[in-house]
Every structure is written in structure tokens, then in C-alpha cells.
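Following up on my earlier message about zinc ion. Here are the inputs again, as you asked, copied directly from the submission form:
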Amino acid sequence: MLGRTHLAIGLAATATAVTNIHALPVSLAVAGVASLIPDLDERHSLIRRKIDTAGIPTGLILLLATDAGMYMYVYIRLLSALLFAGFFVFAYLSPHRSFTHSFLGLLVFLSAIYTSFPQYIVPASIGYAAHLLADVCTNSGIELLWPWRKRFGLHLGQTGGVLDVLAGSAAVVLLVLEIVKKMI
Ligand SMILES: [Zn+2]
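Thanks, got it. Here's what our run produced:
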């Protein structure tokens, strides 16, 4: 699915799951980023277009430098830094919808988060898992059990097609309703 659809679904799912209104803004921010992370393996994805320069994979250098910097200044633990580094390198090198769209990728990313930011594990899990669930619905499917290269998909529609429009629109409506409901 498209990046904006993943973002809308991840935010809507998080707004539904998080009951504490005070925790909602940070939770939405974490889930929003996590919902885009799996598509680090696609050079034309929303997240890669934000961090790469002119189609050159400079985003990987940026991510690894940020990772190293956060470790140096003790914002994250060594295990987190290593897991993030491994995840980012694999994400950039592996084919689209393989490692980052698998249970193994999910486990590595969430372990990196949990080791240093256990308070963000719920929104990070929701954002990332919602991405995988949404992509499973598409015709091309995902390699859920990577390194086994079999693709799993429900063939409900094509990326960028009607499925994206319907899922994205429904998610935006749900997101707005959930936020309004929590504010009143
Ligand atoms: Zn994806």
C-alpha cells in the first residue's frame, strides 16, 4: 500500500488502542514513524523520499550516523544500536517486501525499540504490525516468513488502487472520530 495509507492506518489503530489522552500525541508520533519503517526497503517509498537525496541512498548513512550518535550520547543501549544498525542495513539491501515485511524484521525492530524505549513498545508495535497487515491484503503480498521467500497475500487489491483509497479514507475517518471521542 501507499505510504500515506500506512500512515493513516497506523495512526487510526493507535488512536483506537491508546486510552490515555495525555499519552496520545507521543504515541501517534511513534506509531506514525513505525508505520512507515517497513518501506525502508523501497527506494520510491514515502520514507525513503524523505531521507534519501536525489534517489541516492544517503538515508542509510543518516540513519546509521543517528544510531551511532544516540549510542555515543547514551540515549540508547549498545544492543539497541546494534539491532537498529543491522535492521537499517538489511532494510536497504534486501528486496522490497522481504526482510522488513517479515516476522523476523518486526522482531528485530521491536527488540531494538524495547531495549532502549520500553515505554514506546505499544505504539511502535501497532504502527509496524498494521503496515504488515495492510500489505498482506494486497495482490503482491509479503514475505512474512523471510528468509523463506514465499509471499503471503490476500489478493484484495493493488497498491495505489481502490483498496488504498478505501482503507486510507476509512482510517482517516476513524482517526478523527477517535480523537474527537477522547477529547470530549
Ligand atoms: Zn510495505
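One observation from looking it over: Residues 162-183 form the longest helix (22 residues). Hope that helps, and feel free to reply on this thread.
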